[in-house]
Amino acid sequence: KVLIDVPRSDLAGELAQSETKIQVLQDTLQQVLDRREEERQSRQLLQLYLEALKTEDSILSKVAEPEAAPRKEMDVVDTGTSSTDTSATTALSNQVLAALKEKPAPELCLDSQDLELVLKEDAAALASALGWDKQKAAALQEACEQELSKRLRQVQTLHSLRSTSKGKKTLP
C-alpha cells in the first residue's frame, strides 16, 4: 500500500528505474491489493452464508419440535394458565421473564420456541407476571408475533433458495 501511494517519480529515483517500470509495479501491486480485498469479501460472504445455514437449521429444529413431541408440555401450559393468573411464571421460565422485563426489544433476544410460549400466554397473566399493564403486555405479544412470523418467512425463503440451488446442481 505504501509503495502504491509513493509518487512515481520519487519511487523511480529511489529504485533507479524508469517511471514506466514503476507504473507497472504500482499497477501490479494495486491488482494484488484488489484481489486480496475481493478474497476477504468473498470469505466474509461465505461465512455469512454458513451462519445463515446454521441459523436456518436451528430455527427449523425449533419449529419442528413443537409439532412433534412437546404436546405434553403444551397441555401443562394450557392447564397451568387456566387455573390462576399467577401461573404465567410456571409457563415461562424465569430467564424468559427476565429477558422480557429487562431488554428494550426482548423479542429479538428470545429463541423461536420462547416466542411461541409468550404468544400462548394470556395477556392478563403475562401482564401480572411482568408487573405491567395489559396493553403493554399485549404490545409485547404483538412484537413477538411479528418477530416469529419474520423468522418463519426467513426459513421459508432459505428453503426456497436451497431447493432452487439443489435444482440447479442436478441439471446437466
UniProtKB/TrEMBL annotation:
Residues 15-42 form a coiled coil. Residues 77-88 have a biased composition (Low complexity). It comes from Sylvia atricapilla (blackcap). The gene is Dffa. SUPFAM superfamilies: C-terminal domain of DFF45/ICAD (DFF-C domain). InterPro entries: DFF-C (IPR027296), DNA_fragmentation_mid_dom (IPR015121). Residues 2-118 form the DNA fragmentation factor 45kDa middle domain. Gene3D superfamilies: C-terminal domain of DFF45/ICAD (DFF-C domain). Residues 64-75 have a biased composition (Basic and acidic residues). This is DFFA factor. Keywords: Coiled coil. Residues 64-88 are annotated as: Disordered.
